[in-house]
């Protein structure tokens, strides 16, 4: 167990990093996406969560595809690693932590729910290399079963673009996100909830590429559309507000971003809980913004500590 001194040093390093990001011309390094939240669905399934668009990551941190001495069996086939290494594909723990990627593929194909990239046990979205593999598989089967212009297929394209973007594969991700956005606008309308999610996802990718002027209209449109569709206090609207604030800060418009982040943090804290990844993302973004605006740890430090811990 880490000592109090070790924890203190780690926290100081974290705060120093936040301060470094806040220094300079009013911009911060683009936040990496993590893992996104429950995936978008077709009309016959549950409504999509805008957590998929959150830049701050997410449901769980990625773990390498390697078995450990403490957990040596696949939760699906109950066999050890063998020639195929085990991976930790989701936040499940204990005896359910590891699985073979081939077993995950088999289970995923048996479910035939191409728009859902969630673990059937913990309900969180898969993470790391497994989610990219399954997203590719989902799009392939959706195209074969539903056709390339079906709403569900376009949602699968959005998922694949989003998880590739979160993994830093921006060049490969962008065509999938553009296909999803333009297709959903054509099939369902620009104000449809799926199209709004696709717009925000593409905006966040452009933000990560430093194309802030192109990103801002997309994330703003997603936020305004969700305000009209679901109301300002809906959880998805609050996530869209956070995404807009992230881009505004990159544009040097931090004073416009602050009230959006405060609204997002308060609302997500009430709706999704203090420890939800979206709430922690909002706390982290607000902490960095306050450090930039005021260079004062008074309010920023508790927010940074909360997100870090």
UniProtKB/TrEMBL annotation:
<dbReference type="GO" id="GO:0008270">
    <property type="term" value="F:zinc ion binding"/>
</dbReference>
<dbReference type="InterPro" id="IPR013083">
    <property type="entry name" value="Znf_RING/FYVE/PHD"/>
</dbReference>
<dbReference type="InterPro" id="IPR011990">
    <property type="entry name" value="TPR-like_helical_dom_sf"/>
</dbReference>
<dbReference type="Pfam" id="PF13374">
    <property type="entry name" value="TPR_10"/>
</dbReference>
<feature type="region of interest" description="Disordered">
    <location>
        <begin position="24"/>
        <end position="59"/>
    </location>
</feature>
<keyword id="KW-0479">Metal-binding</keyword>
<dbReference type="InterPro" id="IPR011016">
    <property type="entry name" value="Znf_RING-CH"/>
</dbReference>
<keyword id="KW-0862">Zinc</keyword>
<protein>
    <recommendedName>
        <fullName>RING-CH-type domain-containing protein</fullName>
    </recommendedName>
</protein>
<dbReference type="Pfam" id="PF12906">
    <property type="entry name" value="RINGv"/>
</dbReference>
<dbReference type="Pfam" id="PF13424">
    <property type="entry name" value="TPR_12"/>
</dbReference>
<dbReference type="InterPro" id="IPR053137">
    <property type="entry name" value="NLR-like"/>
</dbReference>
<feature type="compositionally biased region" description="Low complexity">
    <location>
        <begin position="41"/>
        <end position="59"/>
    </location>
</feature>
<feature type="domain" description="RING-CH-type">
    <location>
        <begin position="66"/>
        <end position="129"/>
    </location>
</feature>
<keyword id="KW-0863">Zinc-finger</keyword>
């Amino acid at each position: 167990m880490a000592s109090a001194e070790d924890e203190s040093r780690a926290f100081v390093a974290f705060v120093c990093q936040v301060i470094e990001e806040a220094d300079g011309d009013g911009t911060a390094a683009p936040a990496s996406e993590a893992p996104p939240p429950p995936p978008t669905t077709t009309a016959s399934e549950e409504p999509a969560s805008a957590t998929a668009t959150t830049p701050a990551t997410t449901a769980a941190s990625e773990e390498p595809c390697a078995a450990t001495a403490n957990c040596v069996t696949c939760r699906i086939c109950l066999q050890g690693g063998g020639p195929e290494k085990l991976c930790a594909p989701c936040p499940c723990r204990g005896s359910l932590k590891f699985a073979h990627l081939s077993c995950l593929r088999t289970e995923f194909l048996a479910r035939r729910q191409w728009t859902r990239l969630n673990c059937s046990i913990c309900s969180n979205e898969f993470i790391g290399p497994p989610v990219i593999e399954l997203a590719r598989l989902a799009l392939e089967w959706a195209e074969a079963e539903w056709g390339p212009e079906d709403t569900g297929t376009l949602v699968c394209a959005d998922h694949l673009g989003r998880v590739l973007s979160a993994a830093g594969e921006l060049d490969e991700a962008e065509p999938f996100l553009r296909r999803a956005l333009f297709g959903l606008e054509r099939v369902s309308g620009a104000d449809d909830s799926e199209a709004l999610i696709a717009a925000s996802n593409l905006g966040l990718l452009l933000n990560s590429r430093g194309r802030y002027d192109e990103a801002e209209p997309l994330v703003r449109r997603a936020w305004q559309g969700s305000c009209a569709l679901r109301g300002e206090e809906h959880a998805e609207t609050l996530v869209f507000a956070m995404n807009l604030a992230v881009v505004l800060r990159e544009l040097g418009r931090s004073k416009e971003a602050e009230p959006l982040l405060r609204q997002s943090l308060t609302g997500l804290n009430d709706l999704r809980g203090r420890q939800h990844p979206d709430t922690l993302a909002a706390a982290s973004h607000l902490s960095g913004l306050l450090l930039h605006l005021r260079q004062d740890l008074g309010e920023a430090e508790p927010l940074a500590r909360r997100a870090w811990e």
